[in-house]
Amino acid sequence: MATTALARGETPEEVLDRNLAELLQETRVAITGVQILFAFLLTLPFAARFDGLDAFGTAVYTTTLLSTATATLVLIAPVSFHRILFRQRRKEELVTFADRALLTGLALLLLGIAAAVLLVLDVVLGRWPALVCCAVVVVVGALTWYALPLRQHRRAHR
Length: 158
Description:
By secondary structure, the chain is mostly helical. Helices cover 85% and strands 0% of the residues. It is built from five helices and no strands. It has helices spanning 2-8, 12-43, 55-85, 91-124, 127-156. Helix 2 (12-43) packs antiparallel against helix 3, helix 2 (12-43) packs parallel to helix 4 and helix 4 (91-124) runs antiparallel to helix 5. 22% of the residues are buried.
């Protein structure tokens, strides 16, 4: 952090403030996606065709619901962390925790999105096309959310 502060002409406290603001903005974007997916999942059991799900569909629905619920909890966790540590001069711990929570929450969100695609497309297209489309969603998510950014990160630190 000291290197970043020096390079940017900031104090370490300013770096932490900026990092926290960026994390909060990123979390707002992720939370919106989670809220939309979670709302859809909570209404799904009340739809007429839901009763027709087989064991596979029920398992996928359960996975989707639980991963999305867990993503919601993990993405909101920095709020509680901040509130409990408020005014204790522990912002660096908050930024570290929020960073890890956001990365974990995104992984859970990716699982929820992929499973939701699998659930819907299993009903619409059938099992094998749904599995293929789900795999495509997982690969695209893993590449764009993790692999490409990690590749750039490694390049920058060579």
